[in-house]
Design a protein that fits this description.
about 240 residues, mainly alpha, three-stranded antiparallel β-sheet, 11 helices, 3 strands, about 60% helix
């Protein structure tokens, strides 16, 4: 068709991520492209957009995280797919779940604004705070998702000053023998380097995990019995 190039032709000619070009204008052809437009005031940078898309893939499922349990419970009692996703989103909003990346974003913003990583981490530790973006309840030896994503960011944006701030935080964390960085820290670094809006990490998790929730829901729809855990009373003995 006149005025339309294929995804492959456009990518080869421009080096940009695959998208349809219609009458000279780029029309987003992937979820990552469309989501970037909602989370970043600037146009997508091809190399960082590939990292952005990789993050969506990494976050699509994470076995029985709290939000996925909620989604499966809803599906097991035949809640419709929309209600299943709403169940997952409600739990994901928790500060120790999907909202955890925002704390890491704020930490990086302080270091990026000129504060030393040693002071920023030291003040939090002296105040008895948990350092956001470090440690994981499952991955005691390090979150492989974070390692992979951070390496992609380094390759995509070498010399970026916001990446340098993140490296300073990582160096200081190692010096203090803190736990390894997790996916929330990697998302915060991606957001800082790409210029995403505050809270973008949580949005990335929510959009990506929706696919996982629906896959879990399909499994539950195929089962005959609802998920119904039992409770065991552990209080004072009951009077007869």
């Amino acid at each position: 068709m006149a005025g339309v190039r294929s995804v492959t032709e456009h990518a080869s000619a421009t080096g940009a991520p695959p998208a349809f070009v219609v009458r000279g204008a780029v029309a987003p052809g992937r979820i990552a492209v469309r989501l970037w437009g909602k989370l970043c005031p600037g146009p997508p940078e091809p190399r960082l957009l590939r990292v952005f898309e990789a993050a969506l893939v990494l976050l699509a499922d994470h076995e029985l995280a709290a939000s996925t349990v909620a989604a499966r419970v809803g599906a097991s009692v035949r809640a419709d797919p929309y209600a299943v996703v709403v169940s997952g989103l409600g739990v994901l909003s928790g500060a120790l779940h999907g909202g955890a990346s925002y704390g890491a974003e704020r930490l990086l913003a302080e270091v990026g604004a000129g504060a030393s990583a040693a002071r920023v981490l030291g003040e939090r530790l002296r105040g008895g705070e948990r350092i956001p973006g470090f440690g994981h309840i499952i991955y005691k030896a390090g979150d492989g998702r974070a390692t992979f994503l951070l390496d992609l960011i380094r390759d995509a944006a070498p010399g970026n000053e916001r990446l340098a701030a993140a490296e300073a935080v990582l160096d200081e964390a190692r010096r203090r023998r803190l736990p390894e960085p997790n996916i929330d820290f990697a998302l915060a670094v991606l957001g800082a380097v790409a210029g995403l809006v505050p809270g973008a990490g949580e949005a990335l998790v929510a959009i990506a995990r929706t696919a996982g929730w629906l896959a879990h829901a399909l499994e539950e729809y195929g089962r005959r019995t609802p998920l119904r855990p039992r409770a065991v009373y552990t209080g004072p003995p009951l009077r007869s």
